Q: What sequence folds into this?
């Protein structure tokens, strides 16, 4: 296997989310570090590398989407049944630059039937505190067995 | 410079779009090939590589977003003034696998003031023809000088 | 029955769409006139009345949504099986005033499984032609029997 | 003036929001009662009347949008400068029926430059508590003077 598994700390990540994340080599390649994924919530971090920026040092918005989407996937899979993204909306608040340390936090807004809505805020860590750089809302659909 | 510039053929790409694309090393790294970017329209192609998939060979949705977003950027910058994405909506229609050849087509839906709305359909090329894999709608904002 | 049924002309409306529209007293109350609903497409018109505007004569955006949503419902129900809106996105392009004559046109973008995506453009008829006032994208879900 | 002004209680509504609401005859006609609009937050209630439902007693989704959009407008105008909706996204969670008492709550998610993002949850009051019926995210744009 050519890709390392995503780094997942022992605590604060449910077994179901861990299973999903360990196979998510795409996120691991990007250096996304999921530090929490339980009870419909998740937290992940990513550093903007030179592969993610244009010639002016500004990050491609798609990489903010990738971080938010991964955090959303960790949150909606934390419950157990396999759940996929059916769609998402993102608003870009400010531009992000090479070297920025980003943290994304996902919370579950509501679940109904096999559907769910999750909000993810992406922050940039700065010396003066956190600054919002993107707001994301994901729509999930559970495709695996629902046992509850 | 560590990244190659995006491959841009001589014809069918406006000077403004070319300038934007030539600095877009992030898209070039992904192997995105923009073949058209004029008059508010754009076409781009990308092949799903092993860096984009999980352990089951399914592509991360974020890479479909990246392709659609790049095509959108090429379309909205084809007019000249520097234009950025203010937000986007994506619906995932079906899953995409390692080796799939994707083509994204962006069309301008409307422009008003400094704002624009662009629709991007992402297809998978199959032996039987094209199959839609994602529908994307991007919102743009012109930040550069509008001279017209 | 206190509400009149929506006015539906004999031609260009499928039987399934007609059944849906004839029970849609809410749209009829607003004066929405659906003139076409076949093959996943629909056209509807509405005049902005004084009930829809604020004290400055500007229409509440929610009424543009209502017109677009009704046109979307006519389009996605034109195929036969009962289909509902699962969600929608709207961008407001320009403000609309008392007396404006609006026309909404819905087209089907894609269908997959029980899901569909429909785009609706809302225009204002002016002496100089049509002007876009809102762009809407609806997501549908078929809840009735799919027989095809 | 043919329409009554929206009912606005003395407390918990900022002067700016009050000015906006008093001219919002469209919302008043629908029986929307804004009970709070300060500091970027707002609360409003509406009862589903027979004008809002189809022949089967199910409310038109557009009326849920209207309630959410009005609550969003109250929240984003609570700060002072005149602010308009530039767009919105709504997910319909469950159907709503004649006689249902709905309550919408808007919170500000973020503001940047002249832009803002507000989330509105629409609940139905039931004997057993509150049930989410729709989730709405609005994008605002300030058009008036920003003095802060």
A:
């Amino acid at each position: 296997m050519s890709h390392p598994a995503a780094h997942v700390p022992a605590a604060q990540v449910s077994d179901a989310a861990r299973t999903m994340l360990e196979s998510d080599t795409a996120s691991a390649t990007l250096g996304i570090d999921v530090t929490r994924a339980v009870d419909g919530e998740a937290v992940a971090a990513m550093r903007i590398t030179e592969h993610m920026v244009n010639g002016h040092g500004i990050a491609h918005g798609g990489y903010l989407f990738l971080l938010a989407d991964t955090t959303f996937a960790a949150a909606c899979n934390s419950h157990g049944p396999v759940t996929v993204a059916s769609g998402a909306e993102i608003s870009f608040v400010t531009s992000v630059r090479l070297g920025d340390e980003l943290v994304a936090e996902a919370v579950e807004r509501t679940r109904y039937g096999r559907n769910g809505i999750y909000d993810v805020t992406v922050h940039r860590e700065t010396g003066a505190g956190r600054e919002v750089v993107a707001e994301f809302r994901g729509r999930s659909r559970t495709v695996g067995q629902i046992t509850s």
User: Anything to note?
Assistant: Chain B has one domain: 15-142. The beta strands of chain B are 33-38, 41-47, 83-92, 101-112, 115-126, 129-142. Confidence is low (pLDDT under 50) at residues 1-5 of chain B. Residues 61-76 of chain B form the longest helix (16 residues).
